[in-house]
Design a protein that fits this description.
Blueprint (H helix, E strand, L loop, with lengths): L9 H13 L12 E5 L2 E4 L4 E4 L2 H4 L8 H13 L10 H14 L3 E5 L2 H18 L6 E5 L8 H6 L3 H4 L9 E4 L4 H7 L4 E6 L2 E2 L5 E2 L2 H14 L2 E5 L13 H5 L5 E4 L10 E5 L1 H4 L15 H17 L1 H22 L3 E7 L2 E6 L4 H12 L1 E2 L1 E2 L4 E4 L7 H21 L1
Parallel strand pairs: 3-15, 5-6, 5-7, 7-10, 10-11
Antiparallel strand pairs: 1-2, 2-3, 4-12, 8-9, 11-12, 13-14, 14-17, 16-17
The structure holds pyridoxal-5'-phosphate.
């Protein structure tokens, strides 16, 4: 990593020292920046330097930074009531459940605090649904190269041994299918398969959308087998692909949908949405959460949904996604280093011919003050705020072009 630490930046130096002394080293050597504040799609570091953010807190900051409606709502709600308890009814939770089920074409919602918890809830609901019928099914299938979270069950469902192997013994009942491969799915769908969990656009592994035919056939195969189809929209949901859910773009109706990341505009909230038929399997006490669905996070999510409507963000994601995709394809013609471009709205992945993603990320940060994500050694990932403007997208493309030229000159 290019170290651009400014020795004058005492806040950065103190933070790095404290982190290295006291924080679990799970994030390794981080990018040497501490952000002080943000506005729109721009983040300002503690040394005063301003950055164009094409990462958006990894698909979390859908409204960018300092959105007035969101910050006012949070401030007002925090002053009134941060937490009561799920022992009582919660106004904002009930309203959010109504709005989100409508937007997702589902019947019931449950709120938790993260994507992993939302997927955990989906696995529990799948298993208890068959248990209640007296015909237990335990098997849960997921795709290779998928990412579903870091808890023991979700890391097991994550089809990447590097993430789950060290935690053996892993919870039983999980198995894997090849990504976007119907033959593999057909082979693995056994009578004891409770559910199949899929990302329609795999995010963490570098933005890989499944084919339309695969999504439709997966839906049909699950129905034929009596298995539930869970679509993990933690990264792809909230309008990012140009539809509120990626599943809506594919024209399929899942039995369960999980959301998190962008839902709270930066506050931690996850959601499980499901069909009415499944909901009754959970009896009181079968599942729950202390913090999940509290007034503060739910009021933030309601403000996020208000802004979606006001700013037509799903449509915006589509427009800016098209602009970035065609700009990247243009750059591909000029720069042989840029190998493959994959996108679904504002989820974009670009493979480099050589494992230079980290070098390009660091070049763009230090030379252009543009933030991008390197997911894997040869893949750049872009998940910008959905409020990205046309001018900002152009600015990014120009910066990337210069970055590629510099990298090519060095090679
Ligand atoms: C598709 C998908 N599912 C689940 C998760 C886990 O979400 P969280 O980190 O909020 O637990 C992620 C996180 O990156 C994700 O991309």
């Amino acid at each position: 990593m290019t170290d651009n630490t400014n020795p004058q930046d005492q806040r950065l130096a103190r933070t790095m020292e404290a982190d290295q002394a006291a924080y679990l080293p799970v994030f390794g050597q981080r990018i040497p920046l501490v952000f002080d504040h943000g506005q729109g799609c721009r983040l300002t570091a503690t040394d005063g330097q301003d950055y164009l953010d094409m990462v958006g807190g990894i698909a979390v900051n859908v409204l960018g930074y300092a959105n007035a409606r969101l910050t006012d709502t949070i401030a007002r709600q925090a002053a009134r009531l941060i937490h009561s308890s799920n022992l009582y009814y919660i106004e904002q939770q009930a309203e959010l459940a109504l709005r989100l089920t409508k937007l997702c074409g589902q019947d019931r919602a449950f709120f938790c605090n993260s994507g992993a918890e939302a997927n955990e809830a989906a696995f529990k609901l799948a298993r208890i649904y068959f248990y209640r019928q007296g015909k237990p099914r335990g098997r849960i299938l997921s795709a290779r190269q998928s990412f579903h979270g870091r808890t023991l069950a979700t890391v097991t469902a994550t089809g990447q041994p590097k993430y789950n192997q060290p935690y053996a013994p892993l919870p039983p009942g999980f198995d894997y299918v090849a990504f976007n491969d119907l033959t593999s799915l057909k082979q693995q769908l056994t009578p004891d398969t409770a559910a199949v969990i899929l990302e329609l656009v795999q995010g963490e592994s570098g933005i890989h959308p499944v084919d339309q035919a695969y999504a439709q056939a997966a839906r049909e195969l699950c129905t034929q087998n009596g298995s539930l189809l869970i679509i993990d929209e933690v990264q792809s949901g909230m309008g990012r692909t140009g539809h509120f859910l990626a599943a809506q773009g594919y024209g399929i109706k899942p039995d369960m949908v999980t959301l998190a990341k962008g839902l709270g505009g930066g506050l931690p909230i996850g959601a499980l949405l499901c069909r009415e038929q499944l909901a009754a399997a959970f009896h009181p006490g079968d599942h729950g959460s202390t913090f999940g669905g509290g007034p503060l996070c739910c009021s933030a999510a309601l403000a996020v949904l208000d802004e979606y409507e006001r700013l037509d963000l799903t449509h915006q994601a589509n427009l800016r996604g098209q602009q970035l995709t065609s700009g990247l394809r243009q750059l591909q013609k000029e720069h042989p280093l840029l190998k493959e471009i994959r996108s679904a709205g504002l989820m974009l992945g670009a493979d480099l011919q050589e494992p230079l993603a980290v070098a390009l990320r660091d070049d763009l940060r230090t030379q252009e003050h543009v933030l991008v994500n390197a997911t894997g050694p040869a893949t750049l990932r872009l998940l910008p705020p959905l409020i990205l403007t046309e001018a900002e997208a152009e600015l990014f493309l120009a910066a990337l072009g210069r970055g590629l030229t510099r990298l090519e000159a060095r090679a």
